[in-house]
Design brief:
It is a single chain. The relative contact order is 0.32. The radius of gyration is 13 Å and the shape is globular. It has 115 residues and is an all-beta fold.
Length: 115
């Protein structure tokens, strides 16, 4: 079992920055990749960024050049640094960790970008 605790969401003006964190606890030795997804009202959940155990990263085209994903394996934590935020980035952001078997998801943290 893996438990995830997310933090760092909030309200920010367009052009601003936020940093999301997701700390994992429990059977963390089973974790492979870690990532972030988001879901805006009325839309499907989409991948934002993902980082593998060897630190290979993958980003949605809409966030490339603005968002950076990183992980601290010693702390079992994944981060999402979000810069130059846009109103269309407004969504609930969910942390996901990949393990052998079903993935684990965080509870979600709201990010709201005002214009």
């Amino acid at each position: 079992q893996v438990q995830l605790v997310e933090s760092g969401g909030g309200l920010v003006q367009a052009g601003g920055s936020l940093r999301l964190s997701c700390a994992a606890s429990g059977t963390t030795t089973s974790i492979n990749g870690m990532g972030w997804h988001r879901q805006a009202p009325g839309k499907l959940r989409e991948l934002v960024a993902f980082i593998t155990s060897d630190s290979t990263t993958n980003y949605a085209d809409s966030v490339k050049g603005r968002f950076t994903i990183s992980r601290d394996n010693a702390k079992n934590t994944v981060y999402l640094q979000m810069n130059r935020l846009k109103p269309e980035d407004t969504a609930v952001y969910y942390c996901r960790v990949s393990v052998p078997g079903p993935d684990y998801w965080g509870q979600g943290t709201q990010v709201t970008v005002s214009s």
